[in-house]
Amino acid sequence: MAQVLEFMSTPFLACLVLIGIHAYFGIHVIERGIIFVDLAMAQIAALGGMMAVFFHRTPNSPVGYALSLGAVVLGAFVLAWTRHREQRVPQEAYIGIVYAVATAASILLANWAPEGSEYVKEMLEGIILWVRPRDVALDAAVYGVIGLVHALLFRRFWQISQDYEAARAAGVRVRWWDFVFYVTFGIVVIFSVRVAGVLLVFCFLVIPAVISALFLDGFLPRLLTAYGLGTLITVVGLLASWAYDAPSGPMVAVTFGAALLAAHLVRPWVTAAPAWRRRLALAGVAAALLVALGILILQVQSGVPAARPTVHVHEPVETAEGPPAKAQPTNRRAFRDTETESQLLVDLYERLLRASDSAEKADFLREIQRQWPRPPATLPAELKHAPVAWIDRYFWARLMTDWGHPEGLPTLCRLLDDADLATARYRFDIVQTLERQGIHLDYDPLNPDPTRYHRAVEQCLAAVGR
Question: What is the DSSP string of 93-141?
Fold first, then answer.
């Protein structure tokens, strides 16, 4: 359990910071009836990051932030100025159009940019597991400034959220205030998407606010309930991702969905009921989450890994020489000789190299590490040299590092200076792997400075004796 707390503490803090600001904006979004504005703004911010990649910069560089800010300001203008007094076209239609166009533009840029597909995946899933304390502190500072602005202007924003037409009739410049609202919201989304990804940011924004709106009235009770339930759901989701060896972002998002389903199941019981029954129903949802949390804690403490059949590595393969060979057993104790074991290792490794998707490659790597927690007595010739492609060289170096091979760590060091190593998830993983080996570098995985590339690699190689 101590290992879980050490590994998950920073991602959990990041989620708390995200929930705090998104629960607030979520209540506004529910009141305004613009549920999918977060997806649209998140995709616009991601488009700015993809533009940075197209110009050979990282999304987290100054150029990346500037492009994302410009994109969200333009998106805020479009969303604010397309809301008319006589709304012939629903606002959600414009939101959907903005989202679709931004997504299509991101896909086009990803097609032309180096490693663009990896960045698209990062935009959706985020890098919540690799977030660092300094990134959490930066996000908290930005959200704090935005929160202060909204605290000072809360009455105006809430007036427009509750009744747009009444605010217009009272002489409020609703388009201007909508523009300010969307710009501040877009700034929050720029930093949120960088960490949590488009899908999880949407869940943070909408689902806690929806659950609180099902049972409570009033801004403050709904805000506190959204924040409390969001925090509890996040803890359950993060522990579930650890226990079941699943990506944290999607697992937390699914947990939010399950909590919303539970809230809808108990809501008929409290329809038109007194306040105490609504509070009791919310307490029931919270209790169910606590029970799930307790079960997950017990499972994690037991140390029993949950099976996840993601890779079928022993299926028959038809070859030019004849019919498919009989599948080999997966239990290593069933091997009769080292030749069979070596052939299976080579087969898994070659499948890793042939896999076109990085997640599939990671599954094959985990399968090799599971069956060979220690290196074989004789390393097959196919594994003695690093591949040419950077992504295959990365997985080879990870395997060799775990096995204590002398070329594992030096290869990881050199990858930090590889121009093709474009995505943050691999840089983060390499830096964390090196830190577990006691090697600490002056290297920022989120925004590496080209002038410090070579110095970090030289420092790393010197630390491993190269």
Answer: HHHHHHHHHHHHHHHHHHHHSTTHHHHHHHHHH--GGG--HHHHHHHHH
Number of domains in the chain: 2
What domain range includes position 202? 2-302
Same domain assignment for residues 285 and 417: no
Task: Classify residue 202: in a domain, yes or no.
Answer: yes
Tens digit of each residue's pLDDT (9 = 90 or more) over 119-174: 676 677 677 766 778 788 888 899 999 989 998 988 888 888 877 778 878 877 88
CB of 233 closer than 8 Å to CB of 56: no
Q: Are residues 315 and 327 in contact, defined by beta-carbon separation less than 8 angstroms?
A: yes
457 vs 305: which has the higher pLDDT: 457
Q: Using the 3D structure, point to which of 282, 302, 322 is the last residue of a domain.
A: 302
- Which amino acid, 382? E
d(CA 135, CA 316): 47
Residue-averaged pLDDT of the chain: 75
Query: Residue 319: beta bridge partners?
Result: 322
At 451, give phi and psi (nearest 5°).
Answer: -70, -15
The whole-number pLDDT of residue 283 equals: 67
Q: Give me the pLDDT at residue 275, please.
A: 64
Handedness of CA 441, 446, 451, 457 (dihedral sign): positive
* pTM for this prediction: 0.63
Name the DSSP class of 319: B
- Pair 172, 36 in one domain: yes
In this model, does residue 437 exceed pLDDT 70? Answer: yes
Q: How far is the C-alpha of 89 from the C-alpha of 110, rounded, in Å?
A: 32
CB count, 10 Å around CB of 300? 17
pLDDT at 316 over 50: no
Mean pLDDT on 361-366: 81
How many Å apart are CA 303 and CA 289, to the nearest integer?
21
**Which of these three, 302, 320, 345, is where a domain ends?**
302
Q: Based on the domain organization, do 203 and 350 belong to the same domain?
A: no
Q: Please state, in angstroms and rounded to a whole number, the distance separating the CA atoms of residues 64 and 103.
A: 17
Query: Which residues are 322's β-sheet partners?
Result: 319
The pair of three-digit structure tokens given for residue 313, joined into one six-digit string: 């590595």
pLDDT of residue 145: 92
| Element of type H or E holding 241 | helix 219-243
